[in-house]
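Example for reference:
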Amino acid sequence: MAEPPGAPHRTTGSTLLHPLSELLGIPLDQINFVACQLFALLAAFWFRIYLGPSHASSAVRHAFATLFGIYFAVFCFGWYSIHLFVLVMMNYGIMNMSSIPNIHRYSFIVAMGYLTLCHISRIYIFHYGILTTDFSGPLMIITQKITTLACQLHDGIGRQAEELTAEQNRLAVKTRPSLLEYLSYLLNFMSIIAGPCSNYKDYIAFIEGRHVHMKLLEVNWKQKGYDRLPDPSPTGAVMYKLCITLVSLILFLTLTKNFPMAYIIDNEFLDKTPFLSRLGYLYVVTQAAKPKYYFAWTLADAVNNAAGYGFGGVDERGTFRWDLLSNLNIWNIETATSFKMYIENWNIQTAAWLKRVCYDRAPWYPTALTFILSALWHGIYPGYYFTFLTGILITLAARAIRNNCRHYFLSSVPLKIAYDVVTWVVTQLAVCYTVAPFVMLAVEPTIKFYKSMYFHMHILSILVLLVLPMRPQAHSTRKPQNQVVQNSKKQG
């Protein structure tokens, strides 16, 4: 929510860079964020070269990553950073004192409850323009990590391997982490400011120097003519991602401020602009809102890669992939021909977290519960709930259309191209329609926007669900590993 006119711009973080903030005309908290991430990038290179697993013990690497992370949090958020430390220590106590059958439940309730209380207090503080520092981002990432670790501890200690899916079995944590390991996982300098969330076992493997080696062992290098395992460098991936970051920053400074979302509900604009033109402008302003996310997430990915973390393996062409922690795939987002494809490539690590802690574990209505958890995790602004409830409706409608109609367009290339073009247009407009309230935040502008759009996506989605039958989908991700093995034996 914007500050009232004339309200002083305050921050609880460091004021060291205040002169630079005044010179550039950019809020100090944003300057602090970028400065910390750039410093983290340099520290990450140094960490990989001079504190690599061959030069330093795991304890030293854990300690360095933790101390720098704490410093970055204090630099950016000042006394507000105490919320991060309180949540971390409360859940460390829960992890060590609660019973394994309940560890994931208690951790989830406390972490999400504390995050929600902070969201509520922040809204009231922001509403009156007292403070501008937004500490909720790091708190949201820490909440993801706390609940991820708790669920994976529950899988590793409290459940039999036969009850787990293949992914749950691979990520299961067999022993409670030490305090240093726990703090390092939650507060390390690579992810404390902008994430992303990663799995505990992957992070520990990175600290101990097994991260890249484990992925390389999945490939038969002798068949490729190698006498020994290669040593992939992240430098090329980091440079590529920094180029994307730079382009995103330029677009943010030029497009985002010139195409505000609020203009689509301006009375003069609504009176003079026909419906189709409003749809076109909606697409433009939604595109203009994306660069800040592209910037923050790609820079965060580059920081982790620079430290040597985020190796995803080798693709079909033999290229090293540094995408384990990537939070978005810009090409797939901009060319998405389905709502599902768009969601799967936007905020990827949060989608993975939602799947692992909610969708795969929900006893009923997994799609609806996952959207609701996503809204609650983001905050309590009404616009978030409009977005995610609308998202549920459109997701179900899109699934029904795809299941009932897509196969009719696969018989020839021209039909398939026509289908892809139409579904691309509909998907992009549906996403714009869905996420507009997420940016507007409040109820009044959201209702005004939907009225100006004649609630067309809601109406069309409901009609689709009434007319087309819902074909059940195989929920294979929730099938226990032993059941998959048994089925494969039967088929064999």
